[in-house]
C-alpha cells in the first residue's frame, strides 16, 4: 500500500500569502488610473490600453509557461516572478512618458505569468490527498488580495502621490525572500507533461467544448477587467471621493472572492454548467440594480453582483480540465491565461466607447456582458456533478 503523502500546510500558507500579494499587484494599475488621469489628462482609451498591456502579457504567456513548467519544474520563477513584477510596478509612478508606462505594465505582466503556473503546481505537489480544497483556498487568497488592492493603494496614492509607488516594492521583496527559502524544491516538480502530439490530439477531440468554455471566460474577463478599469473613472466623474470609490470596488471584489468559494461548492453538488449559466445570467440584473438604486440597497446589489460574476471563476477552469483531463496544466493556462488575455485585450474597445459615448454608456455595456456569457455557456457540455459521480461510484 502506497504511504499517504503528508500535507505541507506551512508551505501552502506561504504560497497562498504569495498569491494574495501577487494578485494585489495584478489589480495595481486600475487603482492608479484616477490619479494618472488627474495628473496627465489621460484619455479613457489610453487608460484601458495601459491595463490591457499588463493583462495581455500576464495572460497570453501563461499557457507557454504552463507547458514548459510541466516538463521541468523551475522553482526560481515564483520568487523571481514576484520580485520582477513588484519592481516594474513600483517604477510606474516615477515616469511621465506614456509609452514607458505601457512598457513597464507589459514587463510587469510577465512576472505574474511566471508565478501562477508554477505556484499552482507547487500547491498540487504539497497538498497530499486534499488537492482540490487546498487549491481552492490558494485561489481564494488571490481573490482576496485582488480585493484588498483598492483599500491599500488608493489611500497611499491619495496621501503621498504617485511617487509613493516606489515603496510598494517592499512587500514584494519580503514575499520573494519567503518563496526563495520555503518554496518546494526542483526535485519534486515537473517531468509529467504530455507530448506535443498528445496535446494537439486532446485539443482536437474537445475543440467544441473548449471553444464554448473559453468564449465564456473571455466575455466574463472583458466584463471583469472592464469594470476594474472603468468603474474608478466613472466614480470619479460622479464626484465620488477616491476612498469611497475604493470601498465600493473592494466590496465587489471581496464578495467575488466569497462567491468563488461558494460557486465551487455549488458546482460540485449540482453541476458546472448549471452554476456557470445561472450565476452569469443573474449578474446582469444585479449590476443594473446597483446602478439604479441608492444607499445600502445599492451596495447590497453591488456585493451580490460581484459574487454572481465571479462565482464561476474557478469552476470554468475545472470544466476545461474535465474536457481535457490528461492536459490539466494546459487547460488552466488556456482558461486562466489565454481566454482571460483575450478579454483584457478587448477592454480597449470599452475604453474607446467611454471616450465616444461617455463612461455611463461604457458601464452599461459592461453590465450587459455577463448575460451574454451566460447565454454562450448554454453551449457547454452538461457533465454529471461531482456529487452524482461519487454516488454512482459506490
TrEMBL record:
A Pfam family it matches: MFS_1
Species for this entry: Desulfosporosinus lacus DSM 15449
Keywords recorded for this protein, A-Z: Membrane, Transmembrane, Transmembrane helix, Transport
Cell location: Cell membrane
InterPro entries: MFS (IPR011701), MFS_dom (IPR020846), MFS_trans_sf (IPR036259), Sugar_transporter_CS (IPR005829)
Record PROSITE patterns: MFS, SUGAR_TRANSPORT_1
Keyword Mitochondrion among UniProt keywords: no
One MF term in the entry's GO annotations: transmembrane transporter activity
Transmembrane stretches, start-end: 48-69, 132-154, 160-182, 210-235, 247-267, 274-290, 296-318, 330-353, 359-380
Protein name: MFS transporter, FSR family, fosmidomycin resistance protein
Gene3D superfamilies tied to this protein: MFS general substrate transporter like domains
Membrane topology: Multi-pass membrane protein
Single GO cellular component term: plasma membrane
Domain Major facilitator superfamily (MFS) profile span(s) in chain numbering: 11-385
Main location: membrane
Amino acid at each position: 500500500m502506497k504511504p499517504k503523502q503528508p500535507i505541507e500546510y506551512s508551505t501552502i500558507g506561504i504560497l497562498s500569502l504569495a498569491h494574495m500579494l501577487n494578485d494585489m499587484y495584478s489589480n495595481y494599475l486600475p487603482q492608479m488610473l484616477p490619479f494618472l488621469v488627474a495628473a496627465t489628462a489621460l484619455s479613457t482609451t489610453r487608460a484601458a490600453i495601459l491595463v490591457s498591456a499588463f493583462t495581455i502579457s500576464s495572460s497570453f504567456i501563461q499557457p507557454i509557461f504552463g507547458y514548459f513548467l510541466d516538463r521541468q519544474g523551475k522553482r526560481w520563477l515564483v520568487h523571481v516572478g514576484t520580485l520582477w513584477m513588484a519592481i516594474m510596478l513600483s517604477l510606474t509612478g516615477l515616469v511621465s512618458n506614456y509609452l514607458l508606462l505601457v512598457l513597464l505594465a507589459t514587463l510587469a505582466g510577465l512576472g505574474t505569468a511566471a508565478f501562477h503556473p508554477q505556484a499552482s503546481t507547487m500547491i498540487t505537489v504539497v497538498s497530499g490527498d486534499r488537492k482540490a480544497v487546498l487549491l481552492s483556498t490558494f485561489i481564494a487568497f488571490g481573490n482576496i488580495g485582488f480585493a484588498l488592492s483598492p483599500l491599500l493603494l488608493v489611500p497611499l496614492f491619495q496621501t503621498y502621490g504617485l511617487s509613493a509607488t516606489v515603496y510598494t516594492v517592499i512587500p514584494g521583496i519580503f514575499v520573494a525572500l519567503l518563496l526563495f527559502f520555503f518554496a518546494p524544491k526542483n526535485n519534486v516538480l515537473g517531468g509529467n507533461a504530455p507530448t506535443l502530439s498528445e496535446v494537439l490530439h486532446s485539443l482536437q477531440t474537445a475543440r467544441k467544448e473548449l471553444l464554448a468554455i473559453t468564449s465564456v471566460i473571455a466575455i466574463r474577463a472583458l466584463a471583469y477587467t472592464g469594470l476594474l478599469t472603468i468603474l474608478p473613472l466613472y466614480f470619479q466623474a460622479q464626484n465620488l471621493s477616491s476612498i469611497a470609490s475604493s470601498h465600493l470596488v473592494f466590496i465587489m471584489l471581496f464578495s467575488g472572492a466569497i462567491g468563488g468559494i461558494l460557486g465551487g461548492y455549488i458546482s460540485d453538488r449540482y453541476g458546472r454548467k448549471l452554476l456557470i449559466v445561472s450565476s452569469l445570467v443573474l449578474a446582469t440584473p444585479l449590476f443594473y440594480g446597483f446602478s439604479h438604486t441608492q444607499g445600502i440597497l445599492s451596495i447590497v446589489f453591488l456585493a451580490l453582483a460581484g459574487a454572481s460574476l465571479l462565482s464561476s471563476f474557478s469552476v470554468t477552469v475545472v470544466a476545461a480540465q474535465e474536457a481535457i483531463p490528461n492536459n490539466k496544466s494546459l487547460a488552466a493556462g488556456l482558461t486562466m491565461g489565454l481566454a482571460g488575455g483575450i478579454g483584457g485585450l478587448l477592454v480597449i474597445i470599452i475604453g474607446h466607447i467611454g471616450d465616444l459615448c461617455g463612461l455611463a454608456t461604457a458601464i452599461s455595456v459592461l453590465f450587459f456582458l455577463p448575460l451574454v456569457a451566460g447565454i454562450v455557456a448554454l453551449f457547454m457540455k452538461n457533465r454529471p456533478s461531482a456529487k452524482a459521480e461519487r454516488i454512482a461510484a459506490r
